[in-house]
User: Fold these one by one.
Assistant:
Number 1:
Amino acid sequence: GLVRIVNFDARCYSESVAAIEQLLEQGATALVFDVRNNPGGYKTELVKLLDYLLPEGDLFLSENYKGETSVDRSDAKYLDVPMAVLVNGRSYSAAEFFAAALSEYEAAITIGQQTTGKGYFQNTFLLSDGSAVAISTGRYKTPKGVSLEGVGITPDVVVTVDEITDYYIYAGTLPAMEDPQILAAIDALKGK
């Protein structure tokens, strides 16, 4: 089953779980999550989805500039099916941490191209003239305490695409069975 997550904004968790459950009811035996071109979103949506997918343990670490750390954890219930995550150079923020958490738990294989490497979170402050400013106020880390800042994720299986293919992937017009990264994910999941 293929689940495209275009961002981690409101309803990401509920819509992703609904799609997963529908695919499993239709007979899917493995899942491919596509977070290519995903700009990130809300930590709360990310953590709820990771909790649904992963077993008990740390999911996400946040550290503010005072050095105070908070840890989001998962309960023991999890989804036990083979998984892969597609990433690229426009997989950003929450999309990177989604792939990193699944990878660190060895719950999914990552496929595609190097990600951006964003590791800071921002707070947005509204100004009196109606404009706003976003200021980085802390760092995020993976379940194992790794910062992705400036590093990103190197996929387990690197599959590069040419400019034209990348454009069609970005536009959402490339059929799944013509997408070399989706095909690589299917091959990687065979026999799992």
Number 2:
Amino acid sequence: FAALPASVDHRRFRADSAAYEETTLKWLSDPKNHIERFTISADMTEPLRKLASGVAGDAWKVYENRDNETVSLAEVDFQPGQWPKQATPMRTIVLKIERKQADLFAEQGGIKYLAIVSNDFAENAAALLRWHYRKAGCIEVVHDVVKNELGGGVLPCAAFGANAAWFRLCLVTYNLLSVLKVMALPPSFE
């Protein structure tokens, strides 16, 4: 954030659970850092799982109805780790993913819990979740194409330099194909 130009006046942050650690959370929560909104996927620790599984049935709101599962959300009062009393509190939203038909060897009876933490108490919980999950989606497709369709997942040898050159060639190929799709094909084929 310190490297951002002065013209940037909106600072928002969203990340997966790799950023769910005390130092980062305290920094993001500190009002003097001027982070308008952040959302981070929370580690499903045993205390958080216990709190999520104890949420009353009527407190859950349906977030998504998928083919094989129902995703519900609820808000819980949870602060991670040794969160200081004087620190800015965080909003914790938990998701319950319940299979419509349980698998024979399903964990926890076919129920999975996920959670996010945020400093945004004003936004509707469902809208905040949608904003958080928009962090992903496009890059996974790029990784899949480079790795599985262009050979980036199978390195040619044990030499680091040759493998680096191979991977760069795969990325250049991906970029060229992307340009060709946009420039040479009609929009219906894009």
Number 3:
Amino acid sequence: TTAHTRLIMRALQVEAFGDPKSLRVSELPERAPGKGEIKLRMAGVGIGFFDGLLVKGEYQIKPPLPFVPGSSIAGVVEEVGDGVKHLQVGDHVAGFALLGGLAEKITVNGMACFAIPKSIPLVDAANFFVAYATGLYGLRECGRLQAGETVLVLGGSGTTGSTAIEIAKAMGARVIAAASTEAKRERCKQAGADVTVDSSSDDWRN
């Protein structure tokens, strides 16, 4: 045995671009955090359309193979590198990493993560950055949504769509959600939509 035993973690690794079903569990070395980085013990990963494109090799950025996908993350801080002041060991955090989330551990830039209350389930927090930040940016910064206005959410049953419904309602808007099946429209209602429309019908816009 060597003086410094290498720590090994399990991860889902993309070895060739293609069907996400081809991902396989691999054993990879953990990486100690460098300056400005933290290591997390993973608790949840939000999987979205972006991740699917990366795995298929259809996104505008093609990571070098092999790579571990998973971008929207949540976990518990296990180690803190030099220069990280806003987080400490034991903190529960949500964050964003372009790659690496589908693993038992991840080492990531500390500024890409922030502490969350321990009362928030980490599995739920894993979707925070991608879904809620996308919805808030679209509705508040781009759309300038005001209380009392009506907003139409397309694809309302998906992760980003359902969180957009929640955000729009919290901002005081009336929400119309479009979805293609009864089950999806029910999901929109559960998220808070005032009205749902069947986007699979030819005249749904009317």
Number 4:
Amino acid sequence: MEDERVLVGEVLGAFGIRGEVRLASLLETPETLSDLPAVELRFHGGRTTLRKVLKVRRHHGGVVILFEAMDRTEAETLHGAQIWVKKSELPPLGPDAWYEWQLLGLRVITESGRELGKIEQVHYYPANDVYETELALIPAIADVLVRVDLEANELLVRDIPGLRKDEL
């Protein structure tokens, strides 16, 4: 469904005195948020609101954004809010790049045919991402990943020792 929304980040807290907020972004290029008509903010407790992003900038390895008509006091109330956008508004990715929502639920199989479960969670680390299934932790590196097939809903990985959680 094209208008289905996906999570792209979470507000970590207010930043500075001009109403900006720090963002934990799940996007490679969070700057594209300022190109969208609006993003949806979802708060704990179920409240939602739409906001226009005026500016996105990188700051000391993090991301800072400014919403339209926002001051410092209001920015403080956004702590913990999740940012959601329509799938149809996401920028296309290059080859060998996927959005988290595309990976979740993929069936993981080794080259020898061992089933490792479905991807339940993606962990983001500086060295490399890790895909977690109920049975395995799969480092998202070229030496391990063989093929991501979104059409077949499948991730093929090399059959190497230590992938299964019970082998750690």
